[in-house]
Design a protein that fits this description.
heterodimer; A: mainly alpha; about 80% helix; B: mainly alpha; 434 Repressor (Amino-terminal Domain); two-stranded antiparallel ribbon; 5 helices
């Protein structure tokens, strides 16, 4: 594992999540310009499973010296802060989505739409946070190259 | 942003430069990220005991030479 590989894995997963989340959110507003096959919605999940498996295996079985640098306490603090921001934004988002619903005409279709809205919003937020985290890795990779 | 954290004064930058090391070289020798070294030098982050000891060992000095209470 290296900063560049982690940057690639996390940023690709983040971009794909943002793409699919945008598609779902635009669909809810009837603003989809093209139709995606329903099977393609497996892609972000598969990427996350593959990416996180690779990261986990390299964490336990990879070069110890490199891992000490990649997963040091300051990176952990950054990750924790980004995760906390994500939970806070998602909490606020869920509150907003709940507030926007038409509870007087509530039915299964509305419930289904709300689940989509919450899922897409959370997907979007964590996608952006993954991009922000991976940008830190890119900066480390860039500093490594220029030294 | 000041050089020192409100709870800790540090001489890391000075001692690192005296040792002729860049942030990248020190981070590789101490097995921490360059961001950690940068954040400590800028007073943004207070390192754990283990990290402070690792840095001190790499620079061949005592932790007390690196960090002081204000």
């Amino acid at each position: 594992m290296s900063y560049f590989r982690r940057f690639l894995i996390v940023s690709v997963c983040g971009v794909v999540q943002i793409f699919f989340a945008s598609y779902v959110l635009l669909g809810l507003l009837n603003l989809n310009f093209f139709e995606l096959p329903s099977d393609s919605f497996l892609l972000p999940g598969i990427l996350i499973i593959l990416g996180s498996s690779y990261l986990t295996i390299s964490y336990y079985l990879g070069d110890k010296k490199l891992n000490n640098m990649l997963y040091d306490e300051y990176s952990a603090l950054r990750y924790y802060k980004l995760g906390a921001i994500g939970y806070a934004i998602n909490g606020f988002g869920v509150f907003l989505i709940f507030s926007m619903q038409d509870w007087s005409n509530w039915d299964l279709t509305s419930a289904n739409r709300m689940i989509y809205q919450i899922a897409a919003f959370a997907w979007m937020v964590f996608g952006f946070l993954m991009l922000i985290f991976s940008w830190g890795d890119y900066q480390e990779y860039h500093a490594e190259r220029s030294s | 942003m000041g050089k020192h954290h409100e709870n800790l004064l540090n001489n890391l930058e000075e001692l690192r430069k005296k040792a002729g090391l860049t942030q990248q070289e020190l981070s590789e020798a101490a097995e921490v990220s360059r961001k950690s070294i940068n954040a400590i030098e800028n007073g943004v982050y207070v390192p754990s005991t283990v990290l402070a000891l690792k840095i001190a060992k790499t620079l061949g000095c005592k932790v007390e030479d690196l960090f002081k209470l204000p």
